[in-house]
Amino acid sequence: MSDTSPAAKLDTTVAHPARRYNYWLGGKDNFAADRISGDQVATVFPTVKRAAQENRRFLRRAVGFLAGEVGIRQFLDIGTGLPTADNTHEVAQRIAPESRIVYVDNDPLVMSHARALLTSSPEGRSAYIERDLREPESILNAPELHATLDLRQPVGLTLVAILHFVRDFEDPYGVVGRLVAALPSGSYITMSHGTYDGLPAETVAKLEETNAASGGLSRPRSLGEFTRFFTGLDLVEPGVVPIGHWRPESGSTPPEPIDICMYGAVARIP
């Protein structure tokens, strides 16, 4: 009999984006390969840990906007990552306890921790699916999704710091298009994405060397390439901007874009 437990499918010898991200955020749910890869990136791009923190802040502001100002009560969070502070359901349910959230990730360690730690409010509901963004139909057809979300009602789809792990030959625009097509009018999509825009050529070359050494984990994209994901959608003000500049909290000073190297935006599905 084969072992199908999360531990059986977990390869600790290869860096995984979710666990490397956890390391940058100061978490303990990572392995040597993740820390080595994370340190290699940090050697070339020393502000990467701050970038990870700013990305979480962007998620918090975007979900807060959707739950508070727009009234979204359902969220599909793909590329969940390991649980940390201000997860999607926590932000949404602080505003509307009845909110429902489905988390999706392809790392069995993430799903194991999610089931243990991401506890919904009594009024709401949360579910967890181990699927891969690159196979959107497997997400959309999952029984757990339909048991939790009503796809006839608006949904807040979040793809935060995940699309840069979908390389060009894996059809990232088609993947997003199929997810968007499955959601009703009045839904919203929140995305953030790594970029090399503004970095010196020497730094880009070193980052690409590090990326190649890690198996080509990521494919950063330019402003134009990222904006293309929103074709046919209605961008929410201020549009596509560095994540620190998307509706910053009152009194805060947004970080320099070159220190974060990540774009973000929220858009309505017409």
Describe what you observe in this structure.
With about 270 residues, the chain is α/β, with parallel strands linked by helices. It has one domain: Rossmann fold. It is about 40% helix and about 15% strand. It contains 12 helices and 8 strands. It has helices at about 5-10, 15-25, 30-45, 50-70, 90-95, 110-115, 135-140, 145-150, 170-180, 200-215, 225, 255-260, and strands spanning about 75-80, 100-105, 125-130, 155-160, 190-195, 235, 240, 260-270. Helix 4 (about 50-70) packs parallel to helix 5 (about 90-95). It is globular and about 50 Å long.
N-to-C series of helices and strands: HHHHEHEHEHHEHEHHEEHE
The helicity comes to 40-55%
Number of domains: 1
What number is the mean pLDDT? Answer: 89
Q: Over all CA atoms, what is the radius of gyration?
A: 18 Å
- As for the CATH topology, it is Rossmann fold
Instruction: Give the termini distance in whole angstroms.
Output: 49 Å
CATH C-level category? Alpha Beta
Biggest sheet features: 8 strands, mixed
Quaternary: single chain
The beta-strand count equals: 8
Annotation field: number of helices: 12
Strand content: 5-15%
Indicate the structural class.
alpha/beta
Low-confidence stretches: 1-8
Tell me the CATH superfamily. Answer: Vaccinia Virus protein VP39
Globally, the shape reads globular
CATH architecture: 3-Layer(aba) Sandwich
